[in-house]
Design brief:
This protein is an alpha/beta fold and about 250 residues long. The protein has 2 domains: about 160 residues, 3-Layer(aba) Sandwich (Rossmann fold); about 60 residues, 2-Layer Sandwich (Alpha-Beta Plaits). The chain is built from 10 helices and 7 strands. Strands 3-2-1-4 form a 4-stranded parallel β-sheet, sandwiched between helices. α2 links the parallel β1 and β2. α2 packs across α7. The longest helix has 19 residues. The radius of gyration is 19 Å and the shape is globular.
């Protein structure tokens, strides 16, 4: 099966939308396949503001209808406690919220942007999608991440080379209680680094300290700018450590 066939068979769908590479392409593909598709974005403490802005921008670019739903994910049982299967409880809550809103809007099918490159084994969030009967057209049609990027570039989507992004909660060590304050500190620190021209990095929280994981190609520049970086991030953290191993990058095939 290919994507046009999927949407021919499923001409009406609600999309759990993040504004990232995969869900943006899926929104484009649904529209260009003639489907009635509506995007739903859940805004919480776990998503930085730029992700919401990208989601709205993409919907505008495609002329797609989008609903923004505010949610207090930290109040969901077992999420703030940050257990090893936190993603299960988080994703269950997010897609339950979307499913309810979509049903109220007349949609019975809920889809997401999981692609064929995403490992499904030992991923608690995937279990939530299965339980809620969320379909993943990209994965079902065998479309990999590199293909999504290529197709997105051909379609002129600004997300085609957008770095992979995981929610802010992934910056907090497993078992460490998650607070809105800590998520805010991480977001502000990452915004500061982004403003300095760094990209595709992570600011990992460790107590009152932060560990910066940058792509190997950006480490030398960060070392040269250590004083400036320290001055910026000391507003949020007592100690800032640059991980010399660098951050493992997603392979991008253009």
């Amino acid at each position: 099966m290919d994507i046009p066939t999927f949407f021919q068979e499923n001409p009406k769908a609600a999309l759990g939308f993040s504004g990232g590479v995969d869900s943006s392409y899926l929104l484009y593909a649904g529209i260009h396949s003639g489907a009635k598709i509506k995007a739903y974005y859940v805004s919480s403490e776990f998503q930085p503001q730029f992700e919401k802005a990208d989601a709205v921008r993409m919907a505008d670019q495609l002329g797609a209808e989008i609903t923004i739903i505010d949610a207090d994910i930290l109040s969901v049982p077992n999420v703030a406690e940050n257990p090893s299967d936190r993603c299960y409880y988080c994703k269950s809550a997010i897609f339950s919220i979307i499913k309810k809103a979509a049903r109220n809007d007349g949609f019975s099918l809920l889809i997401d942007g999981t692609n064929a490159s995403d490992e499904t084994a030992d991923r608690p969030g995937m279990r939530a999608l299965t339980e809620l009967e969320v379909q993943s057209p990209l994965r079902e049609c065998g479309i990999s991440k590199s293909e999504v990027r290529r197709l997105s570039k051909e379609a002129g989507l600004f997300t085609w080379n957008k770095p992979a992004y995981a929610c802010l909660a992934t910056r907090i060590p497993g078992g460490t209680y998650i607070t809105a304050g800590d998520l805010g500190r991480v977001e502000r620190a990452e915004d500061s680094l982004r403003a300095l021209g760094f990209s595709d990095f992570r600011v990992r929280l460790s107590g009152s300290s932060a560990r910066l994981e940058l792509p190997a190609s950006q480490i030398s520049r960060a070392q040269c700018m250590k004083v400036e970086i320290d001055e910026l991030l000391h507003q949020e953290f007592e100690t800032i450590v640059l991980d010399p191993a660098g951050r493992k990058m997603e392979e991008t095939v253009i």
